[in-house]
Specification:
- By secondary structure, the chain is mostly helical.
- It has a domain at 31-126.
- It contains 7 helices and no strands.
- Helix 1 crosses helix 3 (37-59) and helix 1 packs across helix 7.
- 21% of the residues are buried.
């Protein structure tokens, strides 16, 4: 892909996100402290990737990305709620953030909180499995 290289998140921010995800804490407040729209998009991608990893690690073959996306407001509904007349395919962070940064940031905030909720559940499930007594294997 030509153009500007993808924005990297600082190590400190990535560590904070890891910690907050493991606790299931909302992440939307991070967006307000980020002046760079490209960094906000990078944060969304980073959180998505980590949430998927946690889901796969916790649920294995039973994991579906729908476990995460079902918690988010569907794009069509988001457009309706915000009286937006743009085409549905333009309501993506990488496109819309350049046209309507405030609206795109609002959508990303909701998505981040939905991902954090899912990640928290995956971590709790993994912790409860780790604490569960193991059955002895029969010969």
């Amino acid at each position: 892909m030509a153009g500007k290289p993808s924005t990297q998140l600082s190590l400190g921010l990535r560590l904070r996100v890891f910690h907050d995800l493991s606790e299931g804490r909302p992440l939307s407040s991070l967006v307000d402290s980020m002046p760079d729209d490209e960094e906000v998009v990078a944060l969304q991608r980073f959180v998505w990737d980590r949430t998927v990893e946690l889901g796969l690690g916790s649920l294995g073959d039973r994991f579906s990305r729908r476990d995460i996306t079902a918690r988010m407001v569907p794009t069509r509904e988001y457009l309706r709620q915000n009286n937006c007349t743009r085409k549905i395919y333009t309501c993506k962070a990488t496109q819309c953030i350049r046209i309507h940064p405030e609206c795109a940031r609002r959508k990303i905030k909701g998505q981040l909180d939905a991902m954090a909720e899912a990640a928290g559940e995956y971590v709790r499930l993994a912790r409860s499995r780790a604490k569960a007594p193991r059955r002895p294997r029969l010969p």
